[in-house]
Design brief:
The complex is a heterodimer. By secondary structure, chain A is of the alpha+beta class. Chain A has two domains: about 10-85, Alpha-Beta Plaits (2-Layer Sandwich); about 90-160, ACT-like. Chain A, domain 2 (Alpha-Beta Plaits, 2-Layer Sandwich). Chain A is built from four helices and nine strands; from the N terminus they run E-H-E-E-H-E-E-H-E-E-H-E-E. Chain B is globular. Helices cover about 35% and strands about 15% of the residues of chain B. Chain B is an alpha/beta fold. Chain B has 22 helices and 20 strands. In chain B, the strands form four sheets. In chain B, strands 3-2-4-5-7-6 form a six-stranded parallel sheet, with helices on both faces. In chain B, strands 11-10-9-12-13-14 form a six-stranded parallel sheet, with helices on both faces. A six-stranded parallel sheet of chain B has the order 16-15-17-18-20-19, sandwiched between helices. The chains are: A alpha+beta, B alpha/beta. At the A-B interface, helix 1 and helix 2 of A face loops of B.
């Protein structure tokens, strides 16, 4: 009858619509920090309505606690809507910029990989190429894994953005 | 009519529009402009002697009056001094608006003199907060602050106002209504849930009504009392709910929880239906969560959806205002014929009587004054009608156990945060809200020293608050835990050098009285209560008295340590 928290840990992707105002992001992020939840990634920008921003957030943790978090996020004055895409059909993408060591003997392989993953070379230097890749998390991770043996200098990832799929 | 006003004038204008009649605060460089305007207005300002006291006073004012409490402090240290008070108001859901001065907008982030990021510091302990960057936004922001503070589940709202914003001018347009797209509390309960409650009531043989602070905040004590009497269900409450149901009613079980009465804890654990109204199932109440009300189906009525199913799973959750929901339930009950519940309830009520008879609240008194005796005598002599504020710890628990409240808004205590130093300033606020009424602060020798400087505030504004100190020379509640769970190692809990409280009272110009023997208690109280001035009554009580019953941390509430 009483408390039966589901303690399974799971990664969740939350999408929130919030008032586009200073401090809102701090409030939302502070929420997770205050409960010992780590935010794996966070992406925020304005929507077509300049007064409204969308925050897409990926966090890892106890499912029972996450239910509470969603309710409490809704309680925040500046939060308009909270959607949990974890168990629903959604489209998810992120972009990564990768600076990979381009030794002469590896260049051909790098370019082949770039082609296979439909990514692009956006900067060329004597020692390093910067590649841009877009896709879901799995694709980005695979790309990085394959490039790793060649020597990755730096990676900048945007974190996930997502929208729900339409009912067909 | 549109007129050009300075930011500081807009603040006064809005306070006027919101019907504020008292502001509690402490001046400083960043807020001189506001104080200048205040002096030219008819608004009343109570200058405390510490900013923490100013917030507690605004809090006590709000709890006693049912209105929004207002507090005004300066930037930097003035603002940081309010954090404890704000956190206490946040935990207990009290509507308070705290205005803090801030350095000019150009200096923000520059480590300027008396600058702190108070918005950042209070983000987790305010219902909401604002930094006003333009004078054009000031009016709307203040209106929103009041709206947010008092609506839905109330709470403290902080508005940080830079000095140049106060000095700038703008065309002032009075704002009629506040509309926040992202904040729409639910007051009306879902009509489909209500009949389910009636069904459960009909099936129940051992119901209990559990009332909390939410009933008092929604001004629903009358509806709750009618409801419980109609369905003939015994009533218990949390610390925050004391006064929501009259303690003199035969259905009253006493407080529930860690220091609740035996019969309240037993009844809650054996009931088959618990109707919880305006509560949040805090750990002080539930004890071991998976052993709480194990046989009961639970109806949970609360205005805050996040309180529902946070700690305890419930059968019928109802999001809505307590008073409105109870009123609707009462209307539905009036249409139904419940039959004669007297016979149906008899066995349950008889069992409860047996619990009360065999294990009542009790203490024995010989040579030393027992603190419980002081509170009981206080209750008798004030006929249970005083407004009682408390400090925190043993004094707080004895006040809750031995002073029996028949009306809401009369028991004012820092429940959720348990902030020592709350009682005296809260009494100031309560007295301002209730001129002519008797206000008593029940304190310990430890707690009273945390905001003792407020004796000066009492004297300045001629507030005849009575302070009852249960003086045992210890940090009582911590000492109790050390006695029971740490082999009696009283580490740093002995308050050896306390002042002579009589001399201290007289130093402030107040009356000081003392009792050291049981036979002196009644006459000391009588003399103190009859005085027209502020009084400190120092009762030298039994040093190592413990609060019983006590449910040790992590145990089910049925496992109480008794006297």
């Amino acid at each position: 009858m009483n408390n039966n928290n589901n303690h399974a840990s799971k990664r969740h992707i939350l999408s929130m619509l919030v008032d586009n105002q200073p401090g809102v992001l701090s409030r939302v992020a502070g929420f997770f920090a205050g409960r010992g939840f780590n935010i794996d990634s966070l992406c925020v920008s304005a929507t077509t309505d300049p007064l409204v921003s969308r925050i897409t957030l990926v966090a890892d943790g106890d499912m029972g606690i996450l239910e509470q978090i969603k309710k409490q996020l809704n309680k925040l004055i500046n939060v308009i809507k909270v959607m949990d895409f974890t168990d629903t059909d959604h489209v998810q993408r992120e972009t990564a910029l990768v600076k990979v060591r381009a030794k002469p003997e590896n260049r051909a392989e790098i370019l082949r990989m770039t082609d296979i993953f439909r990514s692009r070379v956006v900067d060329v230097g004597t020692e390093y190429y910067t590649l841009e890749v877009t896709g879901d998390e799995g694709k980005i991770n695979a790309f990085l894994k394959l490039l790793n043996p060649m020597g990755i200098k730096e990676v900048a990832r945007t974190g996930a953005v997502a929208l729900a799929r339409e009912k067909k | 009519m549109h007129i050009k006003l300075k930011g500081s004038q807009i603040i006064i204008e809005i306070l006027r529009e919101e019907g504020v009649d008292a502001i509690f605060g402490y001046p400083g460089g960043a807020v001189i402009d506001i104080y200048d305007q205040l002096a030219k207005s008819e608004l009343r300002h109570i200058t405390t002697r510490h900013e923490q006291a100013a917030v507690h006073a605004a809090d006590g004012y709000a709890r006693a009056s049912g209105k929004v409490g207002v507090c005004l402090v300066t930037s930097g240290p003035g603002a940081t001094n309010t954090v404890s008070g704000i956190a206490s108001a946040y935990m207990d859901s009290i509507p308070v608006v705290v205005l803090t001065g801030q350095v000019p907008t150009g200096l923000i982030g520059n480590d300027a003199f008396q600058e702190v990021d108070i918005v950042g510091i209070t983000r987790p302990c305010t219902k909401h907060n604002y930094l006003v960057k333009r004078v054009e936004d000031l009016g709307r922001t203040l209106k929103e602050a009041f709206h947010i503070a008092r609506s839905g589940r109330p709470g403290p709202v902080l508005v940080d106002i830079p000095k140049d914003v106060m000095q700038a001018t703008t065309l002032y347009r009075p704002i009629k209504e506040v509309q926040l797209k992202s904040y729409r509390p639910t007051y009306e309960p879902n009509a489909k849930q209500l009949p389910k409650v009636l069904e459960l009531i009909e099936e129940a043989r051992k119901p209990v009504v559990f009332a909390g602070g939410g009933v008092i905040l929604s001004k629903g004590a009358k509806e709750l009392t009618a409801f419980a009497r109609k369905i003939k269900a015994p009533v218990t409450s949390s610390l925050m709910g004391l006064g929501a149901f009259p303690a003199s009613d035969p259905l009253w079980l006493g407080m529930i929880g860690m220091h609740g009465t035996y019969r309240a804890n037993m009844a809650s654990s054996q009931c088959d239906l618990m109707i919880a109204v305006g509560v949040r199932f805090d750990d002080r109440v539930t004890g071991r969560v998976d052993a709480f009300a194990p046989h009961a189906r639970i109806v949970h009525i609360d205005i805050d959806p996040t309180s529902i199913r946070k700690n305890i799973q419930v059968s019928v959750p109802i999001v809505g205002d307590c008073r409105i929901t109870l009123h609707k339930l009462n209307s539905l009950l009036a249409k139904e014929d419940q039959g004669d519940l007297g016979d149906l309830r008899a066995p349950w009520l008889k069992q409860i009587e047996a619990w009360k008879a065999t294990k009542p609240l009790k203490y024995g008194q010989k040579e030393a004054i027992k603190p419980q005796f002081v509170v009981e005598k206080l209750w008798e002599l004030t006929k249970g009608r005083a407004i009682v504020t408390t400090e925190v710890g043993q004094n707080q628990m004895w006040a809750a156990q031995y002073y029996h409240f028949d009306h809401p808004n009369h028991f004012i205590t820092s429940g959720g945060l348990g902030c020592m130093g709350f009682g005296l300033p809260a009494a100031i606020g309560a007295q301002i809200a209730s001129p002519g009424k008797l206000v008593v602060d029940v304190a310990g020798d430890g707690s009273i020293q945390m905001n003792i400087q407020e004796m000066a505030t009492l004297m300045q504004y001629k507030l005849p608050v009575k302070v009852v100190i249960l003086n045992n020379g210890y940090l009582g509640m911590v000492r109790q835990w050390q006695q029971l769970f740490y082999d009696g190692c009283y580490a740093c809990t002995q308050l050896i050098e306390s002042p002579d409280f009589i001399k201290l009272a007289e130093a402030y110009g107040a009356v000081g009285l003392r009792a050291t023997k049981p036979e002196e208690v009644e006459k000391t109280l009588e003399e103190g209560l009859a005085s027209s001035k502020a009084v400190i009554m120092d009762f030298a009580v039994e040093r190592e008295e413990c609060v019983y019953p006590m449910v040790p941390s992590g145990k089910p509430i049925t496992e109480m340590l008794l006297v």
